[in-house]
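Appendix B, example 12.
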Amino acid sequence: MNDLTASHSLAPYGWDDGFDADFTPHAAAGLLPGRIVRVDRGRCDVVTASTQGTDGGGTDSQGTVTVQADAAPVWSPDPMQIACTGDWVALDPGRRVVRALLPRRTAFVRSTSSKRSEGQVLAANVDHAVIAVSLAAELDLGRVERFLALAWESGARPMIVLTKADLVPDPAGLSYLVADTEAAAPGVDVLAVSAESGQGMDVLAGVLGGGTAVLLGQSGAGKSTLANALLGAEVQAVRATRDSDGKGRHTTTTRDLLPLPGGGVLIDTPGLRGVGLWDAESGVTQVFAEIEELAQRCRFHDCSHTVEPGCGVLGAVESGELPERRLESYRKLLRENERLAARTDARLRAELRRDWKQKQALGRHMGERKRGTRR
């Protein structure tokens, strides 16, 4: 980052040489750069550089502008192009209109709950995807793997934070939980923290300093409590979880981008009840990297790891090298991703039907061989 960019008033929000270069044509048109810090009910708040310096020497200052919903391209017919928290924009300050979105470096996307096969961008231009998992409830490794697939697909660096570690007083028990999570998250840092006692918080703050991080997880995972601890102030409202199942209610209702005291910014998100995959095949394969490696042992290059003879993956399950739970989770996420893609791709739908028929025929063949009924 050059000296001029480093002194820019938006540098604390992540402005750098790359975004400065992307903004060059918009600067020539008299627009101002800004970053969306909040989207809520038909409007978004943009922190922007002001053209009126405070020292008379051209040094810009900072301000927040509210842009209404009808200010294109904030809202777009294409849900993937709707501006969201974390987006960098070119702003017309006089008319309070966003004229353009700068190219996104990363985007955390999930499928919507609608039947229209649409993706929803939850956060943009994120460096760290922090997946919060509460230790107040039973550890759900399948859900962890689902979040990780989307995080890897986003282009951000995932990290798993096991919150409420103070509720696990036994150090050995906590170590087992961390180890189980690490086994489900190859190549991903796993950190047990407690906002109540401060355990692990200095390590987490050090990792997140200087970049953009997004907090993701279910309601009741302790995201808002974690955000307050990182921010050093009671910025986000917090509610207690239910004693019956450890689940929480949606305390955070908007996605807010907040500056961290040690540098960098944090995007706190509402709790996610449903986390559907969206074009996340490469993310799934990265989460299950050991299965992709075991597949190199398969006799057939197009092995589905179900009934084929000489399958290296099934062999690893039988020997105990690969937990069967991991293989089932892998299959489930790949099937879900294929079904979603097939909704909008007729050729893919036909290929999936043909592939399914071939697998059925192979399954019948192998069953007959085992029973000795096939001639």
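The domain at 288-371 is CATH 1.10.40.50 (Ribonucleotide Reductase Protein R1; domain 1). Residues 51-59 have pLDDT under 50 and may be disordered.
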